[in-house]
Amino acid sequence: MKIIEGLKKIKDLQRKVSDLQTKIGNHSAHLNYETPVYDNQKDQVTEWLQAHRDVLKEILRLRLAIQRTNLLTEVTIELGGIPVKKCIAAWIHRRRDIATTEARAYQMLTDRNLKEGQLKESTGEIRDIKIVRCYDPEHRDTVIELLTSEPTTIDSRLEVINAITDLIEE
């Protein structure tokens, strides 16, 4: 089974869990004068509970296989013309928030609205005021562009990887 198949199967199993929960909730009790919907409703509810438990076991098995696969499968993605190799899990975390958080630090490199100009000293002497940047603006802009586009680059590469990579079972 490929990663994408496992992800889609989990989604379908979650739907089944929800359906079973609804059935259990709707049929777990009835008044003594009502006719039960099922011949042996108590047994039916017990079967649904067991089915629910079995489906949850399968969801857990698939999730663990996906996590195992994500940790053990290395993928190379080209970022800014440089091939970078990481496990799928690391790429997922970069995609989710790490790249954006890293970009925010570079976006904080600003002139802080400081103004250049001239300042008259108390002695009457006029002094030129210049902004001293503790960063390279060109490098900042390049890194921000790379980090901003990184999630999209990761997404497109992982879509392919999810379609071709087999799940690693225990």
Number of strands: 4
* Low-confidence region ranges: none
The assigned structural class equals: mainly alpha
The span between the termini is 13 Å
Q: State Rg.
A: 29 Å
Strand order of the largest sheet: 1-2
The averaged pLDDT comes out at 97
Give the amount of beta strand, in percent: 5-15%
List the helices and strands and how they pair.
Blueprint: H1 3-27, H2 41-72, E1 74-79, E2 82-87, H3 88-107, E3 117-120, E4 126-129, H4 137-164
Antiparallel strand pairs: 1-2, 3-4
Helix pairs in contact: 1-2, 3-4
Task: Describe the structure concisely.
This protein is mainly alpha-helical.
Describe the protein.
This protein is mainly alpha-helical. It folds into two domains: 3-72; 74-164, no CATH class. The protein has four helices and four strands. It has helices at 3-27, 41-72, 88-107, 137-164; strands spanning 74-79, 82-87, 117-120, 126-129. Strands 1-2 form a two-stranded antiparallel sheet. A two-stranded antiparallel ribbon has the order 3-4. Helix 1 runs antiparallel to helix 2 and helix 3 (88-107) runs antiparallel to helix 4 (137-164). It is elongated. 9% of the residues are buried. The model has no long low-confidence stretch (mean pLDDT 97).
Characteristic terms for this protein:
170 residues; single chain; 2 domains; two-stranded antiparallel sheet; mainly alpha; 4 helices
